[in-house]
């Protein structure tokens, strides 16, 4: 079922030996790529706009603060 408040994206991420995941590049369906400039915060959180529970990464991408969610093996941002 499609959620009108979630945009599912592909993420290139780095996984370390302690199980931590750091998103590096956000890939749009149209082929554009955006480097994650900085991860500002990582915490368990619910998406207030789109629903769902998972790990919320507060990131700076292209100079903007973006909430990137990792939930059940999938990555999404809020519309």
Structure in words:
This protein has 79 residues and is mostly beta strands. It has one domain. The chain is 0% helix and 67% strand. The chain is built from no helices and six strands. The chain has a six-stranded antiparallel barrel with strand order 1-2-3-4-5-6. The radius of gyration is 12 Å and the shape is globular. 14% of the residues are buried.
In brief:
The protein is mainly beta.
Shape: globular
Derived from helix and strand composition plus strand pairing, the structural class reads mainly beta
User: End-to-end distance, in Å?
Assistant: 16 Å
Q: Which regions contain 5 or more consecutive residues with pLDDT less than 50?
A: none
Largest sheet: 6 strands, antiparallel, barrel
One letter per element, helices H and strands E, the order comes to EEEEEE
Strands of the widest sheet, in order across it, are: 1-2-3-4-5-6
Helix content: under 10%
- Bin the strand percentage: over 45%
Report the count of strand segments: 6
SSE arrangement:
Blueprint (H helix, E strand, L loop, with lengths): L5 E10 L5 E7 L5 E14 L6 E9 L2 E8 L2 E5 L1
Antiparallel strand pairs: 1-2, 1-6, 2-3, 3-4, 4-5, 5-6
List keywords for this structure.
single chain, 79 residues, mainly beta, six-stranded antiparallel β-barrel, 6 strands, 0% helix
